[in-house]
Write a structure and sequence with these properties.
CATH architecture of the largest domain: Alpha-Beta Complex
Number of strands: 14
Largest sheet: 4 strands, antiparallel
CATH superfamily of the largest domain: Rubisco LSMT, substrate-binding domain
Number of domains: 3
Helix content: 40-55%
Structural class: alpha+beta
Order of helices and strands: EHEEEEEHHHHHHHEEEEEEHEHEHHHHHH
Distance between the termini: 63 Å
CATH class of the largest domain: Alpha Beta
Length: 404
């Protein structure tokens, strides 16, 4: 394997490290995609099943490896957290601190120095473009959660306070944007695989990855023909743009897997709330119930939403029908009364319009902005994300409004 002419010595060091450990690197090169982004390109025509990359097990970093390390044992003994990748975050910080004494130095050195396309690091003008999307709140939640986790680790893990919040945040994004989940036997293993993490997500993918049958290496094989000079692409799964942006810092311009979440609750101050709660099997009267609207209109999902709303907006007469039925929720899958149906449909359309009103621009304005304005990479990602969400909301609102 060769490095791109623009690549620095850290790439050559990584390749040498992997090869010295017994890795196999075939017919591909690391390329610069601009803006600090890297990718992998084929150096020859490649056919399905061909091996592109074999990373020996000793160069694959798993959560269990990090947990068994010096700092991992400290975390195990003194801290508790809900994300096992925190072991990897702490391990990366430890190995970066060890410098030349670390076996993992070539890998740590190649990790990105910054993450400018991730919304966590957007400036105020850029992040404001996400208002209306749940992405905005998710990024704000990330800020609070990471600061809280770092504070807890500093308070409970001896010596952890030597790592600043800035360093912790860097290591967090270096890890979460690069971990793989692979099956080893019947267990799902979370790991980091050097060099394999430079293969970008693409639609359609032309390569796939997994642990070898004996579990002794992480392998990348060709899954579809790749022409010489073509970028090697893999898949991060059927992810919608909100997930891709908040997790990895990128989106796909036309993502068939996009979705929007709508949340419904029982009407406030309804004297029939207690009985509706029982029929809907909700743990509390104000428990929110969420639904994910897909890019393509889904009649089955729409039926599930209307079932909930029929019960939520039922009057005494409709509740009597539900109570008499062998199964109330099955009965709610069809119309209870004309009046109730109008209330349920109106509630759904109103929820879509309320979500649309939370954005600072209309769908038409977003279309014009994308067509006419010169946008930065980050700004374009934000506008594309919110445009897709608005398209889905409008699709469902218009489809459902026809039932009135």
């Amino acid at each position: 394997m060769s490095a791109h002419p623009e690549a620095d010595s850290s790439i050559a060091n990584l390749l040498h490290w992997l090869e010295q450990a017994g890795g196999t690197i075939s017919q591909m090169e690391i390329i610069s995609l601009g803006g600090g982004e890297r990718g992998v390109r084929a150096l020859a025509d490649l056919a399905p099943e061909e091996l592109l990359l074999r990373i020996p097990r000793r160069c694959v970093l798993t959560v269990d490896d990090a947990r068994a390390s010096e700092i991992g044992r400290l975390l195990e003994a003194h801290a508790s957290f809900d994300d096992e990748r925190t072991y990897l975050v702490a391990f990366v910080l430890q190995e970066k601190e060890r410098g030349a004494d670390s076996f993992w130095k070539p890998f740590v050195d190649i990790l990105p120095k910054s993450f400018p396309t991730h919304p966590f690091f957007f400036n105020q003008d850029e992040i404001s473009l996400l208002r209306g999307s749940f992405a905005y709140g998710m990024v704000e939640y990330q800020r609070v959660r990471l600061a809280s986790r770092h504070k807890d680790l500093c308070q409970h893990v001896p010596g952890f306070q030597r790592f600043t919040l800035e360093q912790f945040i860097w290591a967090h994004f270096a890890v979460v944007s690069r971990t793989f989940s692979v099956m080893q036997g019947e267990s799902l293993v979370t790991c980091m695989a050097p060099l394999a993490d430079m293969i970008n997500d693409g639609r359609p993918a032309n390569s796939g990855w997994d642990l070898s049958a004996d579990g002794q290496s992480f392998e990348v094989h060709v899954s579809a023909p790749i022409a010489r000079g073509q970028e090697v692409l893999t898949t991060y799964g059927s992810r919608h743009n909100l997930h891709l942006l908040v997790q990895y810092g990128f989106i796909h311009a036309d993502n068939a897997h996009d979705e929007v979440m709508l949340i419904f609750s029982l009407p406030l101050e309804d004297p029939l709330t207690e009985e509706k709660q029982r029929l809907l099997k909700l743990p509390s009267p104000h428990e929110p119930h969420s639904y994910k609207l897909q890019r393509q209109f889904d009649p089955k999902l729409m039926g599930e939403i209307l079932s909930f709303l029929r019960v939520a907006h039922a009057g005494a007469g409709e509740l009597a029908l539900l109570q008499e039925a062998p199964d109330a929720l099955t009965r709610a899958q069809s119309m209870l009364s004309v009046e109730n149906e109008q209330k349920a449909v109106s509630a759904f359309v109103a929820a879509c319009k309320e979500r649309l009103a939370e954005y600072r621009t209309s769908l038409e304005e977003d279309e014009r902005i994308l067509r006419e304005e010169k946008l930065s990479h980050n700004a374009r990602s934000c506008v594309l994300l919110r445009r897709s969400e608005k398209q889905i909301l409008q699709l469902y609102a218009h489809s459902c409004a026809g039932l009135l």
